[in-house]
Amino acid sequence: MSLIIVAIAILVLILLISWAKVNAFLAFLIVCLLAGVALQLPSQTIISSIEKGMGDMLGSLVIIIALGAMLGKQVAASGAAQQIAQTLVQAFGKKYIAWALTLTGFVVGIPLFYGVGFVLMVPLIFSVTFRYQLPAVATGLPLLAALSVTHGFLPPHPSPSALVALFHANMGITLLYGLIIAIPTVIIAGPLFSNTLKKINSTPLKAFQIELIPTEKLPGVFVSFFVPLIPVILIGLSTLIQTFTTNSQWLYQFAAFVGNPSVALLIALITATFLLTGSDRESMTIIMNRYGDAVKDVVMILLIIGGAGALKEILTQSGVSDQIAHALEGTSIHPLILGWLIAALIRVCVGSSTVAGLTTAGILLPYINANGVNSNLMVLSIGAGSLFFSHVNDPGFWMFKEYFNVSIKNTFKSWSVMETIVSVLGLVGVLLIQLFV
């Protein structure tokens, strides 16, 4: 009976978000209360579980997500992202512009949240396509594929970071595996797939073009590339050093400290604050106000993540989590594939990759712990599943359609297929790495 209640709770969550259009955070709270009552938890236990679940989930993530938002905002506002795009397009030349934009999306996508990256980079795509008279969809989609992959696979983005916290995975190893999977995935879903889309007619609306920052006011090339990559460099080096040193050595302790995602992001943000200020040398007040605005942009993401943590705690306190683990033990489906399937199903129903990933994690957490599955790969498997087949219930679908001014049919042929390729290749990559670790 308990498992039926959980299934109904997940269905109610999906309906509240997709059909009733209820805010995802409120939907999580409503479902937590209803599930707690249906599972016969004492009223005080329901409330305390919601509070504990949100606190446990957000405790390790607020710093990471807030600092990441600030860093991304500064990279965007300073013109560093524009400098990266401009430099790569000039280096690759007109013939390989799609590859240049792919690399741009990958570098810029590491610090920028997906929504911010989309809104910032699409006008830059249009400026390139208008200048060289290129098909907008075929030229721009590779960059968006790179943004999608970094959003779904790589910490310190919100969903992968939250999944790392839930599964007690290693942030550095997850990032390393994510990069190994991300590179071939971006190449196939980006430049290679986009070659089939050159006949799609697209006339981007001029309203979405932006006034670019004059070249002489942009940050330097080295600084523009280096600052967004600081967190990746520090976390990656930390993981490498810790692999070849022992816990008692000072180098191990130092690497663990600077490679902590919160510390790495803080170092990157401090660097960005003083180096990415443009030629006009913005005042500290302006920069700090920008950081305040950046945090406002991610408040709802934090609340949704907290809501998912609350639902996970309700399931744990009721004992249903253990029942789910036992029920799944007899399944012949590999846990990594199962995680991908459930996340993909919820993604198709709800539209939100964050909701899909975190809901799946709450369902499978005890099963994964009991079966000794590689937690780093499970983070990536669920992350890949949460990107599956973006369609009409996903805001990203409509942003792409409206910005590029294409038909719904062509949005499915380009955007939806690209997201599906990213998702499937992500799972393939996870399964291949699983063979060697």
TrEMBL record:
<dbReference type="InterPro" id="IPR003474">
    <property type="entry name" value="Glcn_transporter"/>
</dbReference>
<keyword id="KW-1133">Transmembrane helix</keyword>
<protein>
    <submittedName>
        <fullName>Gnt-I system high-affinity gluconate transporter</fullName>
    </submittedName>
</protein>
<feature type="transmembrane region" description="Helical">
    <location>
        <begin position="174"/>
        <end position="197"/>
    </location>
</feature>
<comment type="similarity">
    <text>Belongs to the GntP permease family.</text>
</comment>
<dbReference type="GO" id="GO:0015128">
    <property type="term" value="F:gluconate transmembrane transporter activity"/>
</dbReference>
<feature type="transmembrane region" description="Helical">
    <location>
        <begin position="298"/>
        <end position="315"/>
    </location>
</feature>
<dbReference type="GO" id="GO:0005886">
    <property type="term" value="C:plasma membrane"/>
</dbReference>
<feature type="transmembrane region" description="Helical">
    <location>
        <begin position="218"/>
        <end position="244"/>
    </location>
</feature>
<feature type="transmembrane region" description="Helical">
    <location>
        <begin position="134"/>
        <end position="154"/>
    </location>
</feature>
<feature type="transmembrane region" description="Helical">
    <location>
        <begin position="375"/>
        <end position="392"/>
    </location>
</feature>
<keyword id="KW-0472">Membrane</keyword>
<feature type="transmembrane region" description="Helical">
    <location>
        <begin position="412"/>
        <end position="436"/>
    </location>
</feature>
<feature type="transmembrane region" description="Helical">
    <location>
        <begin position="30"/>
        <end position="50"/>
    </location>
</feature>
<keyword id="KW-0812">Transmembrane</keyword>
<keyword id="KW-1003">Cell membrane</keyword>
<keyword id="KW-0813">Transport</keyword>
<feature type="transmembrane region" description="Helical">
    <location>
        <begin position="96"/>
        <end position="122"/>
    </location>
</feature>
<feature type="transmembrane region" description="Helical">
    <location>
        <begin position="335"/>
        <end position="368"/>
    </location>
</feature>
<dbReference type="Pfam" id="PF02447">
    <property type="entry name" value="GntP_permease"/>
</dbReference>
<feature type="transmembrane region" description="Helical">
    <location>
        <begin position="250"/>
        <end position="277"/>
    </location>
</feature>
<feature type="transmembrane region" description="Helical">
    <location>
        <begin position="57"/>
        <end position="76"/>
    </location>
</feature>
